Fold this sequence. Notes:
The complex is a heterodimer. Chain A is an alpha+beta fold. Chain A is built from ten helices and eleven strands. Chain A folds into two domains: 2-44 and 235-361, no CATH class; 71-201, no CATH class. Chain B is of the alpha/beta class. Chain B has one domain: P-loop containing nucleotide triphosphate hydrolases (Rossmann fold, 3-Layer(aba) Sandwich). Chain B has helices at residues 48-55, 78-88, 104-111, 122-128, 144-156, 174-191; strands at 4-17, 20-33, 37-41, 63-68, 71-72, 89-92, 162-166, 194-198, 210-215, 218-221. In chain B, α6 (174-191) links the parallel β7 and β8. In chain B, α5 (144-156) runs parallel beside α6 (174-191). Chain A binds chain B through residues 3, 6-7, 9-11, 269-270, 273-280, 353-355, 357-360, 363-364, and chain B through 44-45, 47-50, 52-53, 56, 58-59, 79, 82-87, 89-91, 93-95, 97, 99-102, 106, 110-111, 138, 154-155, 158, 166-167, 170.
Amino acid sequence: MRYAWKEITYEKRKYILIELLLILLMFMVLFLTGLASGLGRDVSSAIDTMDADQFIVDESAEKLITVSAVETGLLDKLRSDGFEAAPLDIQRMHIARPGSSEKLDITYFAIEPGSFAEPEVTEGSPLSESGAGHPILLDDNFKAEGISVGDKVVDPASGYEFTVAGFVKDRMYCHSSVGYISGDCYTELRLAYNPMYQTEYHAIAVKGDKAPDIDTEKYEAVSKHDIIQKIPSYTAEQMTVTMIVWVLVIVSAVIIGIFNYIMTLHKRRQFGVMKAIGLSSAELAGMVICEVCIISVFAGAVSLALTFGMAAGMPEKMPFFLEVPNALIVTAAFIAISVLSSLISVVNISRIDPMIAIGGGDNE
Amino acid sequence: MSEILLELKDICKSYPDGSEKRVILDNVSLSVQAGEFAAVVGPSGSGKSTLLSVAGLLLSPDSGSILIAGKDVTGVSKKERTHIRRRQIGFVFQNHNLIPFLKTEDQLAFVQDKSLKDKIRTDDLLRELGIEKCRRQYPSKMSGGERQRAAIARAFVNDPDIIFADEPTASLDAERGRAVAEMIRAEVKRRGKAAVMVTHDTRILDLTDKVYRIENSRLVTER
């Protein structure tokens, strides 16, 4: 350790350059990791943060809440069976401010006010405590559109009007900001479009992992994780970005390995001398691995600091969300792969013949 | 003074040379006592380096045996040979071969066995060799003579039985070369070690106790 550090400080310039390169690469990796989970949350956060463990959907819906249909009677049955259950409808539509023609994307989450499906407000009051008619809770993103508590928003096609009761934080579904409304409002809204509309639910959210007693011919209980995986675009997006992240992790680690290998080739004679004067291959390997550890741990630490520093100053709307465990896993993998790639150098060192120290280089 | 620290018995070594076998060492025997400074001379290509490599446990002989401090070390494992090189043998190379990123004191600490810290003191070695001022210098900041003296200090730091010097004066001018050879002699006498120096430089042979010459793959005593 001590001698590895001495070598690094002696060859400062060389090591600073490689450090810079690695920090940039790792920073990019961590940044992409943040974007990946940010994008993921853009798609799933409204489901992910809901205090439910499983969702009952109709068996033919392929785990997709939006195309599922569940009879209202099932809710009462689940509740009488002792489950904590709450109805959920998800509908993507538009809203606009009264008198404005600008349409804003919104995904309605129709819930039962006061149930566990209703998120906590960060501003304003919950649906059940709002005195206004047709209350709606909006995701923070609508604040950036200039909407505030007490404002009216309308469904442009039907003219159905809501009053903004409050705001909630980080509730997105499929890249669209979520608005929470009561099931009654939802029914009225649907009736405005289709007078034949009959109340039913898209899904029923259930707390706890206990399997509910349902007609498995008709219904299916799906875990939250599976529901999220099935949200359109979620899996495809995550796979793409995750793959880029891991390719970059491997590339940066291999760069360390190659750098180290070239250094080793340059130092063949030096290693030969060290072996001749009695240092074992294990000691030399220890030095090389130590050096790689120092370089990679340092690069990892600096890029972590940089990324978290930057995340703190990021604008609200940027889909960036870096979870500490994720960042640490990526960094740890980077360090591990770096050390692994330095094993090429170790093999090379073990093959050096100490004879090269004798006779000024030419083996007589 | 009579203890024999290095003994080579009937060493043979040959290399394949095309389809033939080129004999480099043919039944070479040599013994060096404590406090004795021996020189091996001969034209280049005569097998001096091979002899040094075999005696220094860097190369295995085809036949014959090697005894260090009375112990037969001919067939020992690779790991054991590395250990013997570190503890019982000191090397001084043609080009100092110091480690570029270490200051003189670290060069010594790098190879020194921790248990010898009190017995062989870096201070003493550097003073005896007249390079105390280089203690905290990198090799690149030292003169050729100073570097070679630092290399000598490194060779003695583990209190070895034998010192092998491979053309230690080749990269120095006559005056400095002689000074370096004198240093090796002084340390060998003071610490009672055996030393074998391979050299071209006939002007320093008067500093040695015995001179051997390699001729036609055989070792003959010249003086």
